[in-house]
Amino acid sequence: MSDAEVVSESDPFAGTSDLDRKRTIGRIFVGLCAASALVGIVALVVLIADVLYQSWGWVTWEFLTYPPSQFAESYLPGGRGAGIYPALVGSIFLIALTALFTIVLGVGAAVYLEEYASEGRLTAFIEANIANLAGVPSIVYGLLGLAIFVRAMQLGSSLLAGALTLTLLILPIVIVASQEAIRAVPDSQRHAAYGVGATDWEVIRDVVLPSALPGIMTGTILSLSRAIGETAPLIMVGAATSMFVPPDSPLGPFAAMPMQIFDWATMPDATFQHVAAAGIVVLLTVLLAMNATAVYIRHRFETEL
Amino acid sequence: MSDDTSMNETPTIETHTEAKSTDDRSPASEADADVAGMDDQSIGEETVIEARDLSVFYGDERALQPVNVEIPDRQVTAIIGPSGCGKSTFLRSINRMNDMIDVARVDGELLFRDTNVYGEAVDPVALRRAIGMVFQKPNPFPKSIYDNVAYGLRIQGKDDDLDEQVESALRRAALWDEVSDRLGESALDMSGGQQQRLCIARAIAPDPEVILMDEPASALDPVATSQIEDLIEELARDYTVVIVTHNMQQAARISDKTMVFLTGGELVEFGDTSRIFENPDNQRVEDYITGKFG
User: Fold this and answer.
1) B184 in contact with A at a CB cutoff of 8 Å?
2) Given Cys at both, which of A81, A116, A189, A201 links A66, Cβ 3.0 to 4.6 Å?
3) What is the CATH number of the domain that holds A277?
4) pLDDT tens figures, A16-58
């Protein structure tokens, strides 16, 4: 009887000495994952902190309610009053129109593809194309908007042309998000409605859309908050960089916040960096408000009933 | 016991106290070539649903061999058989729920009150208004109890006296006493058994003629199952009930007629439940019922 045998009989955890090494590997892995997660958060915090620092004291009521000015002093508190007002209103109108078009077209396309179209080569082809379109760079959509809406449809560099271009840009994402939301509605729910003699339309209206609505709305709002920050397509359709009045009609010219911010950022006078930062704060606030709405809608519909 | 066809001519034991005009005295030996026992559909019972050489295909695959059967009015007809034998396929072909499967194709005729439901003139939506359905898993809508029951009535335009109709349906589904004071609450907060009875109330509220049930108690506990079974027997006073079940004891307890499907989508035997369970014509049916296979 050797010592080794005695040890192995008395120690129920014999042969587990590898655990320490494995646990070390595990800790390193957790550390790497945590570091990766931190990169995103830290970058965002630094960005926001920098912007807030730059814009401190520049975001005033006057900044929200006055048109821009050539002179940096006008933006300062106590100055003549200058700000982002036309671009803010322009962006809100732009996003409202885009939302309208996107919801109608996006939900319509998703309902058709999921509920009506039979699964075949054509549907698969359309779906593959939609997925591909979601990855097309926004400047390409800008070119498309320029060719179709501004030139061919002769809408000019109008609010409507801008909204239609942004609609094209986010439509693929909205369609895919809506399709996923519709697909997540259990078939048992559809069958329940068909079982009591509902028509296709009634099933969609009463069962599919109400259940899919939170998913559709979150997908749409998140896409819209991407659209509100887009600059490239608006440059292509010829939106004004800086305007002194908000748009007066869908066919009128308009300025949007990203372009206004770009305009300030390229000013030679360094004081305008603060103005640009103030513009970014306003843009980010609108964006965060939209995302908060998306979260609220999802939460509200999920807890209800 | 398949050789013992003469047993058919002796009156079978009636398990149901309710007087059913069962008449299965016609000689079995004349017609047991294809489907044993098909002869004891009784004369004098009105047929509501009749299948004539009804087959169902999923793509190229045959899910149902030609079925010939006559389902009588206001009785419980149970469909039993092992998994994948086509019992649900047959049930779903009655109210054309198979239409929703793109690859499903139907051959032959299915007559509902002498009209072929697969005929050109028949609107499946109208058909489903006359033939209600209860599914395997309770599937209430994420709405209030009241709105669930009212749903069929509303879409069918039968929404006069909605309150009374909802109450009546809930009473017939033996649910009223449990929910009368919380009609506005979400149906999803009910127990599984209550949800299934709610689904039955939803199905019967617009007063269909036939109710199809696809294993309605398979997801429920024994107490809820027994409530559903009592309810089904009760419903057969007013409705024709066709129920798919994998539970043979359940079929024996609640049904008047039984259809036995065996592997391959073949209807092997149809007849009075008591006779099928005590003295089936077909050896394979006997083996199945006594648990030798399936």
Assistant:
1) no
2) A81
3) 1.10.3720.10
4) 788 889 999 999 999 999 999 999 899 999 999 999 999 888 8
